[in-house]
């Protein structure tokens, strides 16, 4: 596998709480850091490719249930932050 040298930037991204818990669970399951997982998801999305196998999607469904994440793709760009 070819290794590519990169420069990373620390960022403060705000994200919905249950979604973050699911992402952290997926990162743990795939033995990746959260940053590596997000980079992979974005790079796959940029090429119109699915980032996860069927097995991983099954794990994601279970994690969503555990953490009460009911968000779907149709919620994208429609989320409104609560006042508290």
What does this 3D model show about the protein?
With 84 residues, the chain is mostly helical. It has a domain at 17-67. It is globular, with a radius of gyration of 14 Å. The model has no long low-confidence stretch (mean pLDDT 96). Helices cover 49% and strands 0% of the residues.
Keywords for this entry:
mainly alpha, 84 residues, 3 helices, globular
Write the layout of secondary structure elements.
Elements lengths: L16 H14 L3 H13 L7 H14 L17
Helix pairs in contact: 1-2, 1-3
Overall pLDDT confidence: 96
Work out the radius of gyration.
14 Å
Share in β-strands = under 5%
Oligomer: single chain
- Number of separate strands: 0
- Tally of helical segments: 3
Distance between the termini: 47 Å
Brief rundown of the structure:
The protein has 84 residues and is mostly helical.
